[in-house]
Amino acid sequence: MKTYAKQCAEYSGEYEQLTVGRGQADEFSTRQCDCCGSYLGGSRTPGHGLIGTEWYELEFCSDCVQYIANGELPESATRLDDWRETGGKLRSHSNVGGYPIAYLCDDGGTLCPDCAEEEGSELEEDRNSGWYIETGFVHWEGEPLVCDHCNGTVDSAYGGAE
Fold first, then answer.
1. I want to staple 144 with a disulfide (CB 3.0 to 4.6 A). Which of 19, 22, 64, 153 is the partner?
2. Segment 129-150, tens digit of pLDDT
């Protein structure tokens, strides 16, 4: 399984240097982490990235803050750990609120939880295959998402646009 540390190093490779700011972290956000690219919900801490002589303002997830500060992460930190039930199966609904979850693949495709569990992959050699799962996400609102494997649907938590 790919760790955030490796993902952070690959995704943020254009920056010559990354620094974590002293600002207040957001309590909760689903904005993309500027270091690893994850949309996984959690806190975002302000920081900066250097390209040439220009510093850019960035936001980092808590795992990348630990990576930047210490150069390593716990071995157990993987991209999909937070999307798993106690038994290891990928969740179909959030454990708080019961909101529907779908999974995003490396080609931009969407998988329902059943297909993500059966057909999806977390193996690095499957990256760019269309079956590599980048992350899970809560489908908050909008039309139902169509699974790219089985054509089943994942309903949104709050329905379609009015």
1. 153
2. 778 887 888 888 888 999 999 9
Rounded Cα gap, residues 97 and 136, in angstroms: 16
The answer to which of 75-79, 90-94, 116-120 has the lowest mean pLDDT is 75-79
Encode the chain in three state secondary structure. CCEHHHHHHHHCCCCCEEEECCCCCCCCECCCCCCCCCCCCECEEEEEEEECCEEEEEEEEHHHHHHHHHCCCCCCCECCHHHECCCCCECCECCCCCCEEEEEECCCCEECHHHHHHCCECCHHHCCCCCEEEEEEECCCCCCEECCCCCCEECCCCCCCC
| Torsion angles phi and psi, residue 19, rounded to 5 | -130, 145
Sign of CA dihedral 143, 145, 150, 151: positive
> Is 146 within 8 Å of 138 (Cβ atoms)?
no
Strand partners, 111: 103
pTM over 0.70: no
